[in-house]
Amino acid sequence: MPRIVRDIRVGDRPTVDALVRRMDGAGGFSAKEMTEGVDLLHRILADREMTTFLSFPADLVATGTRGVLTELVRRRLVDVVVTTCGTLDHDIARSLRPYYHGAWDLDDAALSRKGLYRLGNLVIPRDHYGGAVERFMQPLLRRLWDRGVRSLSSIALSSAIGEALARRKARESLLAAAYAAGVPVVVPGITDGAVGSQLWLFWQDHRALALDLFADEQRLSDLVFEARRAGAILLGGGISKHHTIWWNQFRDGLDAALYITTAVEWDGSLSGARTREAVSWGKVKRTARHTTVVGDVTQVFPVMVEAALERLDDGTTAATRNRG
Questions:
Q1: What's the chain's average pLDDT?
Q2: Domain range summary for the chain, segments of one domain joined by +
Q3: Which candidate in 96, 122, 194, 278 could, as Cys together with 284 as Cys, close a disulfide (CB 3.0–4.6 Å)?
Q4: Which of 7, 152, 40, 33 is nearest to 88 (CA)?
Q5: Yes or no: domain 16-97+127-312 corresponds to CATH 1.10.10.10
Q6: Alpha helices in 182-282 (DSSP H)
Q7: Of 28, 26, 20, 34, which Cα lies nearest the Cα of 8?
Q8: What span, in angstroms and rounded, lies between the C-alpha atoms of 240 and 245?
Q9: Which residues, 6 or more positions from 150, have their beta carbon under 8 angstroms from its beta carbon?
Q10: 292 strand-pairing partners
């Protein structure tokens, strides 16, 4: 029997989850994708025996969406973060200096003359980014060197940054939350960002310092092969998305995969590839629960997470999983 399309009721101040459930009954276009995504997100977060990967590119950390990512990490609802070097950059910079609202159509030449960067519709003073990262990273690297550290994985580096930010009481920091929760942060493209440049700069006078990316891969291997079930929350595309699904092909694919993107699939890009394409590669199991939500992560993900957390917190599922 086909489902009947129902009108959405508003005005009675429903919870976010109640509104999402009404949207599901409405048979909306992209809204229906989002409601299906919330169902899957809740299943992933509620599964105590699922090893959960969270992947995203750095630009999200430059926005207030960082708070949503941080909450998932703080509650230990994810087991590992896979991201890009700019996540370290922006998390450090925003923990020390503010970013500002801007607009898409600002005069970029004029911004450049004023010493301002534009990231989408955000504006970042130059010294709040590169300069702030350098002033933070060089003393940190010096302290690690003086302690005898001669090899760093991206996981170890992210943890060291998180520890230093926690000491500064950077309560909104993603890396500080990951450090406190014991959630590893993997950055496969660690040299592609301001933190990576600072590593290279420090290396000029400390040639014995090495990056141990194989240690990161070993940790991912352990997570993948020890997982009873594996799930992934994939936000945006790029290397963080690919590294997550790439490693999970070695266990015959993810058991659950939620993907949110604005990219198109007809140009053949990884960022636009839907979860169903990953099934053909063995990166998502044929029997997996998977869905792709088309939408801007900064719009839909906070709503989806809040709805899923309300379901977790309704007394039927613990809000923080036991990550023993």
A1: 95
A2: 16-97+127-312
A3: 278
A4: 152
A5: no
A6: 194-203, 213-226, 238-248, 275-280
A7: 26
A8: 9
A9: 208, 209, 210
A10: 259
Q: Rounded CA gap, 296 and 308, in Å?
A: 18
Q: Do the Cβ atoms of 81 and 54 come closer than 8 Å?
A: yes
Distance CA 123, CA 98 (A): 10
C-alpha atoms less than 13 angstroms from C-alpha of 203 in its C-beta half-sphere: 14
Alpha-carbon 165 to chain mean position: 18
Residue 89: burial class (beta carbons within 10 Å; 0-12, 13-18, 19+): buried
> Does 114 participate in catalysis according to the annotation?
no
Q: Which contacts of 112-120 are long-range, i.e. CB under 8 A and separated by 24 or more positions?
A: 119/59, 119/62, 120/59
Catalytic residue of the set 32, 114, 169, 283 = 283
Tokens encoding 248 = 């999970």
Q: What is the pLDDT of residue 317?
A: 47
Q: Residue 37: which H helix or E strand, with range?
A: helix 30-46
Provide DSSP, 273-303.
--HHHHHHTTSEEEEEEEEEEES-HHHHHHH
Tokens of 161: 């940054």
Quickly count: other Cβ atoms within 10 Å of residue 149's Cβ: 14
Amino acid letter, residue 281 = W
Task: State how far the alpha carbon of 99 is from the alpha carbons of 29, 62, 106, 171, in Å.
Answer: 34, 8, 16, 16
Residue 232 amino acid letter: A
42-84 pLDDT, tens digit each: 999 999 999 999 999 999 999 999 999 999 999 999 999 999 9
Contact 244, 53 (CB under 8 A): yes
Read off the pLDDT of each residue in 7-17 and give the average, rounded to a whole number.
93
**SS3 assignment, position 186:** strand
254-261 vs 122-125, strand pairing mode? unpaired
